Amino acid sequence: VEGYVFTMRIIPKSTSTQPGYVINADPQVTEGVGATGKNHFYLDSDSNTIHVNGTQPATVADPPIGQ
């Protein structure tokens, strides 16, 4: 969608974890004239905050978007 590849991972409920999800949005092409995006984004069911990384797939450890 709009030059990004979205990946969703479902975390099933178990005896040690609650159910949830993790979503990553990564640009199809990151460099050059045909770049479709520069930033990588991350969202999960626990943080409810979008995290961003400019060089690699984002994780919960990356800063929230806008900071």
SSE map:
Elements: E1 4-11, E2 20-27, E3 40-44, E4 51-53
Antiparallel strand pairs: 1-2, 2-3, 3-4
Strand ordering within the main sheet: 1-2-3-4
**Biggest sheet, in brief?**
4 strands, antiparallel
Number of helices: 0
What is the β-strand count?
4
Mean pLDDT: 92
What is the straight-line distance between the termini?
Answer: 25 Å
Structural class: mainly beta
The dominant shape is elongated
Low-confidence stretches: none
**Residue share in β-strands:** 35-45%
Rg value: 13 Å
The portion of residues assigned to helices is under 10%
Q: Report the order of strands and helices.
A: EEEE
Please tell me about this protein's structure.
- The chain has 67 residues and is mainly β.
- It contains no helices and four strands.
- A four-stranded antiparallel β-sheet has the order 1-2-3-4, with no helix packed on it.
- The two termini are 25 Å apart.
- The mean pLDDT is 92.
